[in-house]
UniProtKB/TrEMBL annotation:
Purpose of the protein: Plays a role in cilia formation and/or maintenance. Plays a role in the regulation of cell morphology and cytoskeletal organization. Involved in DNA damage repair.
Subunit structure: Found in a complex with CFAP410, NEK1 and SPATA7. Interacts with NEK1.
GO cellular component assignments: ciliary basal body; photoreceptor cell cilium
Name of the molecule in the record: Cilia- and flagella-associated protein 410
Source organism: Smithornis capensis
Length: 254
């Protein structure tokens, strides 16, 4: 799916592309982000949980400081070449992409050697010691990836991508683990959910209805962050009516 101009303006609540500062398209089945070439003033982008594989459109985002790309279809660390010219990039979340490979240390060292200006990588602070070690253990990336090429062990295909998925969006949003929920909370600048406030269900402990309910709840919490006062008031009214209906039903059953 291609990210359109209209979708960007709608989500960012902006009148023009050059006025967009923050963009959150988490879990939107995106594969084409070429519109980013027209976002010169964007500062924070959330593209986690999509099917993105090409980062070249981000080269024009010179004001970009935070980029969230967790769980996409980025097959080669050479894609980082497109981020080298972004002078303000300080936060990158790239975990759970095929390019991360089977060697976490080599992966992290390569990213830090390529982007030494990062202050946080995959929700972990970058240290001076790591930056020094990256010069030794990291792989130097000097060119963008050749399309359709596979680098010995560094690239692997996803079993399924958002582009070819036939699963309903609601069922792809989240699993019902505390860890996954808190990853989303972190990406959105929200506080993590305390363990004692969260019930974690494993596939063996809950049925499909329970998992669906957790997915829907997390999706609603995610989307609420994008609403203004008017939107939240509408949600509040809808919730009040829903609760009244449940209370009325319970009284009738008694």
């Amino acid at each position: 799916m291609r990210l359109s101009r209209a979708a960007v303006l709608r989500q960012a609540k902006a009148a023009a592309l050059d006025r967009v500062r923050r963009l959150n398209c988490w879990g939107s089945h995106l594969t084409d982000i070429s519109i980013c070439r027209d976002l010169p003033n964007i500062e924070v982008i959330t593209f986690s949980v999509n099917g993105i594989s090409d980062l070249e459109p981000l080269t024009q985002c010179q004001n970009l400081s935070e980029l969230y790309l967790r769980r996409n279809n980025i097959g080669s660390l050479n894609e980082l070449f497109h981020l080298k010219a972004l002078p303000r990039l300080r936060v990158l979340w790239l975990a759970e992409n095929p390019c991360c490979g089977q060697d976490p240390h080599r992966y992290r060292m390569t990213v830090l050697r390529t982007l030494p200006g990062l202050q946080r990588l995959d929700n972990q602070a970058v240290t001076e010691e790591e930056l020094s070690q990256a010069l030794v253990d990291g792989v130097e990336i000097t060119a963008p990836p050749a399309r359709r090429d596979v680098e010995n062990g560094w690239t692997e295909s996803l079993e399924s991508s958002a582009a070819g998925s036939t699963v309903e969006p609601g069922s792809q949003l989240l699993n019902c683990s505390l860890e996954e929920t808190n990853k989303i909370q972190e990406e959105l600048g929200m506080k993590p959910v305390p363990r004692d406030k969260y019930s974690s269900f494993s596939p063996r402990e809950t049925d499909c209805n329970q998992k669906k309910e957790n997915n829907v709840l997390n999706a609603i919490l995610l989307l609420m962050k994008e609403l203004d006062t008017e939107g939240l008031e509408i949600i509040q009214q809808a919730v009040a009516r829903r609760l009244q209906a449940f209370q009325k039903k319970e009284l009738q059953e008694e």
